[in-house]
Amino acid sequence: MSLPPLVEPAAELTVDEVRRYSRHLIIPDFGMSGQKRLKNAKVLCVGAGGLGSPALLYLAAAGVGTLGIVEFDTVDESNLQRQIIHGQSDIGKSKAQSAKESVLEANPYVDVVLHEDRLDSSNVMELFAQYDLIVDGTDNFATRYLVNDACVLLNKPYIWGSIYRFDGQASVFWAEHGPCYRCLYPEPPPPGMVPSCAEGGVLGVLCASIGSIQVNEAIKMLTGMGDPLLGRLMIYDALEMTYRQVKVRKDPECAVCGKNPTVTELIDYEAFCGVVSEEAQEAALGSTITPRQLKEWMDAGENIHVIDVREPNEYEIVSIPGAVLVPKNEFLMGNALEGLPQDKRIVLHCKTGVRSAEVLAVLKSAGFQDAVHVGGGVIGWVNQIEPEKPVY
Ligand SMILES: Nc1ncnc2c1ncn2[C@@H]1O[C@H](COP(=O)(O)OP(=O)(O)OP(=O)(O)O)[C@@H](O)[C@H]1O
């Protein structure tokens, strides 16, 4: 299926621009008209992280006239393995500012507009209304559903990508002409079921594979070239080196773009995606200790049994002295309960406190009423107790 171009061509290219974009201009199907359309285009990239890095750099290099960047975070050392728009000297700096500098270095003719804010229900509509197309480079479900619903309500195309470990996915959603994100994924996964890249890791170069597909689709949509990835889900396996395609159909029952939509305005996306499950929140209430409290119990020789519920490779990077590794899934499948000491107080921890709260809920319903978990997890422990150890 081909679609008409999203934008009209800009009046003219300057002599400098003709030189810069000459390798585009000589592609017969691209030509002057395609390049002028890019010059006139306004694209918003949500997130200047793993996917946003290559996406922004290639959108800029391609000559997209106006590039908006929404990002609230600062550059962390652990970002640099994949977020190539930032460098060593940017650590601690605003990601939006750092991304802007790299974009202008790649192409000074781009007009960069920064929105140094977290995208949420209060700002999304006003922001998206200013752009022709949205590229999503974020890493969490709440933002994806927010971006999707805002795009449906404003009738904007949404270019989506997702990465985890060695696997990537990409698609184009546009309710007026095809399915939306909710047609593919009507409900978010239960909290904790799908780990983030911060929990499960990601191969850095995967960002380039998926981010460049997103830019490819953006260029096609803006200029009207080729068949957009609309109604198709691209699934990439970096280890097998395979690209598979799956058809995505518009769901007539879709909550936001179906015949009788139930979502007609923005909702509370954090609550919808249940960032931490209700059971876990309840279990953690009054049963969360600080890393300092744990250290005091250890020093006082309290009768405790500390369990680290992360994965073995995380344990290898850094761990709390004396903690025994039993990955979360062992508890969720019920295998780990039998081996637990009955005469000691169980103290759980994970990386930041999300997974340990889930396991805490399992232990409480199995009768371990005095079990607790460490808020902030091993990262909190390193920050407060052993700052010489690495964080990840
Ligand atoms: N609602 C939002 N508004 C603006 N930016 C967002 C929003 N949600 C996520 N982001 C940004 O999207 C980017 C996603 O990048 P990435 O997936 O590489 O994760 P990260 O948060 O940088 O790294 P990690 O999770 O490993 O610490 C991040 O820079 C994050 O700050």
Automatic annotation (TrEMBL):
Pfam families: Rhodanese (PF00581), ThiF (PF00899). Transmembrane segments: none annotated. GO terms for molecular function: nucleotidyltransferase activity. Keywords: Nucleotidyltransferase, Transferase. SUPFAM superfamilies: Activating enzymes of the ubiquitin-like proteins (SSF69572). The keyword Calcium does not apply. Gene3D superfamilies: NAD(P)-binding Rossmann-like Domain, Rhodanese-like domain. It comes from the Bacteria. Residues 300-390 form the Rhodanese domain. This is Adenylyltransferase/sulfurtransferase MoeZ. The gene is moeZ.
